[in-house]
Amino acid sequence: MTALAPHIEAFLREHLLRHRGASPHTCDSYAYSFRALFTFAAQRLKTVPCALTLEQLDAALIGAFLEQLETTRRNGAATRNVRLAAIRAFFRFLQHREPAALDQIRRVLAIPFKRRDTRLVPYLTQEEVQALVNVPSPTTRQGLRDRAMLHLTICAGLRVSELTGLRLEDVAPQAVTIRVRGKGRRERALPLWKTTARALRAWLAVRGQMPASEVFLNARGQPFSRWGVAHVLTCHGITARDTCPSLARKRLSPHVLRHTSAMIVLQATHDIRKVSLWLGHTQLTTTEMYVRADPSEKLEAIEAIVPPRLRKGTFRPTDALLAWLKAPR
Question: Is position 114 annotated as part of the catalytic site?
């Protein structure tokens, strides 16, 4: 029996970090996927995770794990595919380390990704955005921080990892622009709205000298986590429902604010290329989803089309009894 622990350690520490140069976010995502898989396998096989062997991770067990994600944990097809992508990357790595298990590895690699529905992206309207950013109080230190976070996320369309990783050195003097370290180690420079720059300057003025170099810090003076940002957004979203009831029907998350930024830029410029540059996308195909979600983009086509005329007429029932019942008394 082949011990599994040395292989997973070599995959995460050597293959991903040293050879592939993967980002810490990628490594964390892969580690979380394996943690969920090994917990499920240990419970199913009635053992402890550190005692698992490679032979026990066959296609049947991995298929049961993926099924459990959707049925018990209520994960969607997208999350299922993310977990499967991590598993397949690990088994491709094993092809050269364990050639004796090649048949088992091929069966695992044959597990297909699941197709999923392509829905319209969720985003907030202008009224909902205004109600949300009005919630943090400008008279408290925490309110100034939260107001700057919300304004900056909506203005720049930041991913939550880009927001939490923003450093003081990335903010230009007077906070007129910021430098964003995006996905795939791609950097981009973004100008800020005047209101966003004022909100950011107000927070930096009261932030104080802290050991951490990140712009936004929690109550303990440590950099925000993605869950901390989501918690702050949820709390302010609940309060904003009092002035904007439509927010109760919206699912608030940091990525919804990123979608909102994209829709604001698209509706202002009508140029999908500018939206792609603003968000840091590498391909325009990734940005096309915002065109599908914006009804104003279709209005131009409606106004340019001359529809066929509708022939006038009145429906007359053919049945004599129905005609008598329809006649006025």
Answer: no
